């Protein structure tokens, strides 16, 4: 398998070649943009070469090793309870009227749910929103627990429930995150071969790029335009932002927004910037600006180089431990890999810091209650 640094370099090479091939459908990149891109990729590579020996520790068998089936029953009940609560909250946001289609465009329930969830409720289901991260942690917990064919069947239940949570969240990235977490866990546990990995990834990509937007009625453009909008446009938007639209430097307003938001809720008088960015005045347009935008906007070129070096270092450190049958490291590696895959689109490292902390906390609790001992891939 590619190391995170190698994958990152190859991924940005593909993005860059795609940008060149589309010709005049996008603006010519400025030299400052090329410099920021080169600094980011190069610094990530250098960070990946740093070897840290400190291990990610997992709690030992603090509580009694409860029966597996009692544990499964309790966890599945909690997930289903949370799913029912989330559905109830979604129906309170958008009541299901008579004759209203469930999916697709034209005023469907799902389309209205997405609109109201983002515009009116800030993308939050309130208390019930915490169950989404818990469902992801439970799904991966049972994937890394697989030691027999029966365990595969058991692991499929939380995966299906997590998929339902992701659909109610209405964002395709929630579906992508779930698939990435599962793929990384399956590969780390050698449950799936490289060929199987490709076979699993292709329908997963189709599911993410085609089926989910169809359900929301948002796949109404040519497939080439769709590719350009989501894969190439963010780099063009970043180039536009660097021409002076986003002033440098805002000294952490973007990068540490999650921390400032928490301090604001605790009563501190701190400024919290809007997470949704303005639409770029470019040929392709859009309001996403690659992973580099917040770090350049807050700290300039030094911020891009420094944070990308840090991410490369952490990526490689976690990935090395994920190969050592460390379930918590496997889970964190999946989260990091998702953020790595999304680099071409927007920052998912610090912008989703609160969500990552919640998910890691849930996984730690699961491993504390019932540690995983000696799980390995099923024979045959």
Question: What's the layout of helices and strands?
Answer:
Blueprint: H1 4-21, H2 31-48, H3 68-93, H4 109-119, H5 130-144, H6 149-169, H7 172-188, H8 194-215, H9 223-245, H10 257-265, H11 293-322, H12 327-341, H13 353-369
Offer a concise description of the structure:
The chain is mainly α and 380 residues long.
3D structure, described in words:
This protein is mainly α and 380 residues long. It has one domain. It has 13 helices and no strands. It has helices at 4-21, 31-48, 68-93, 109-119, 130-144, 149-169, 172-188, 194-215, 223-245, 257-265, 293-322, 327-341, 353-369. Helix 3 (68-93) packs antiparallel against helix 5 (130-144) and helix 5 packs parallel to helix 7. The model is unreliable at 375-380 (pLDDT under 50).
Total domains, how many? 1
Overall 3D shape? globular
Please provide the ordered H/E string of secondary-structure elements.
HHHHHHHHHHHHH
The percentage helix is 55-70%
Structural Rg: 21 Å
Output the number of helix runs. Answer: 13
Secondary-structure content class: mainly alpha
Largest sheet: none
Residue share in β-strands: under 5%
Low-confidence stretches: 375-380
Question: Can you count the beta strands?
Answer: 0
Give the overall pLDDT as a whole number: 84
